[in-house]
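Hey, can you fold this one?
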Amino acid sequence: MRWVNRTIGKGQGLLLGALPLAALGIVYILAAASRHAANPADKILPLPSAMIEAMAGLLFEADPLSGQLLFWADTIASLSRLGMGLGIATAMALLVGLVLGALPPVRAGLGPLVTGIAVIPPIALLPILFIVFGLGETAKVALIVIGIAPFMMRDVAGHITALPREQLVKALTLGANSWQVLLRIALPQAMPRLIQSLRLSLGPAWVFLISAEAIAADVGLGYRIFLVRRYLAMDVIIPYVIWIALLAVAMDFALTRTSRLLFGWAHKAGH
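Sure. Predicted structure:
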């Protein structure tokens, strides 16, 4: 049987997905052991035992200055900022994407503006955001929103624009007005696409969050990574990076399950 015709079961898929991760872990352990055999004080590739020891203090021991468990304080702060940014961007993408996709006059007027904002590198706007909003939470959330909302708007609008013309003609023939077309035709079909756009935006959203926290923050996952890098504390940096990856995967999985649960009709059987 040709590989393009192979059907992968759930259990087989999990196994195949775990193999590269296991191989990467084994390669890392061998490389770290080799470096430590040559130099026991090596900090570049810490052994798993060193990472566990370093993280235990952040996980279970309160910071003498703040009294907080730093790992959990960093996680809560970053997830709060990320959640606010994703929520605002998603709401904007739904509202603007709907009207851009369904209403040609609005698309002609606002489409170039959205496109222009979308092509500006969001990191380049970070100094402006800090000047306008200060060094507080607003600038960090605004960077996430500016970074992902235009892409999501264009994606949702493009999906609405590509809907079969027959659907709109039938609705208008039956007496629907523009408002009813938006709510009854465009909105239901925009929702699964909106979730897909949000999934694709998770990676960039994390990048913008970490960038903002690295420059101006006193708590957060990105702040901690860039704080300890001056000490070459790879035993903290690597676990933090792994934790960010796990959080991103969990969010992606939750969005996928939500989409399949609420909008099963939009997903092909077996995919």
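Residues 178-215 form the longest helix (38 residues). Let me know if you want another pass with a different chain boundary.
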